[in-house]
Specification:
elongated, 12 helices, mainly alpha, binds iron/sulfur cluster, Endonuclease III, domain 1
């Protein structure tokens, strides 16, 4: 490959990263609603301590075999259940668990493998595009830098946070719908949007819980602090949570 072609490719990689960074800056939200005060730091710490005692080594419920398959699984999981994604990726990852194999498979076949997942056409396209970029710009490896990750097709801040945390052990907080709800109800980190909640949680995140905090909160939201009817009567942090309308036990209702 000639020098000119290599330089051209690198310039393209750099420009894509800058474009995505600008998009992130422009996406800042309006701040018109007054937020309630966050829980004291020591209360938040006690919440993590209890969640940690109940589940010391929480894991993502998405199946993956390496950094690349985790990245693809998270991209596919937007607005889909982990269970649904795992069902589709079982066969997909058996034939393509790296960027080159995914490109060799091609977009049409990737689409067939993931057609049971919502938005599968766009997601299949993104899986091919991100695989191309990993090969062109990162030697086929998943980068550990936020800007680099967010320069990949289909990868936003939340996906980058999951990869940085699960693959590279960084203390990031990937705020999904569950964490957003738990953080606001408990008042661990009141926020009008995921970025505000993320910043609030990270600000009060004790070092000793940084690695697993996002999994504890996701699992708490998924199995206890349910969206429609939180199961407050069996919640291990009910006495610390600031939510006013706690659900009574079924026999008290
Ligand atoms: S007490 Fe209820 S609202 Fe508060 S965290 Fe537990 S389940 Fe959620």
């Amino acid at each position: 490959m000639g020098v000119k072609k290599v330089l051209g490719r690198r310039a393209h990689c750099a420009m894509q990263t800058i474009r995505n960074t600008k998009r992130g800056i422009m996406a800042k939200s309006a701040k018109s609603v007054t937020l309630p005060r966050a829980l004291p730091r020591k209360t938040t710490k006690e919440i993590y301590a209890r969640l940690a005692a109940a589940d010391p080594e929480p894991q993502t419920e998405l199946n993956y075999t390496n950094a690349y398959t985790l990245l693809v699984a998270v991209v596919l999981s937007a607005q889909a259940t982990d269970k649904g994604v795992n069902k589709a990726t079982k066969d997909l990852f058996a034939v393509a668990d790296n960027p080159q194999a995914m490109l060799d498979l091609g977009e049409d076949k990737v689409r067939d493998y993931v057609k049971t997942i919502g938005l599968y056409r766009t997601k299949a396209k993104n899986v091919i595009l991100l695989s191309e970029r990993l090969l062109a710009c990162f030697d086929g490896r998943v980068p550990n830098d936020r800007k680099d990750l967010e320069s990949l097709a289909g990868v936003g801040r939340k996906t980058a946070n999951v990869v940085m945390n699960v693959v590279f052990g960084m203390p990031t907080m990937a705020v999904d719908t569950h964490i957003f709800r738990v953080a606001n109800r408990t008042r661990m980190a009141p926020g009008r949007n995921p970025l505000e909640v993320e910043k609030g949680l990270v600000k009060n995140l004790p070092d000793e819980y940084a690695q697993h905090a996002h999994h504890w909160l996701i699992l708490h939201g998924r199995y206890t602090c349910l969206a429609r009817k939180p199961r407050c009567w069996l919640c291990s942090i009910a006495d610390l949570c600031a939510y006013k309308d706690k659900t009574p036990a079924p026999d008290e209702a």
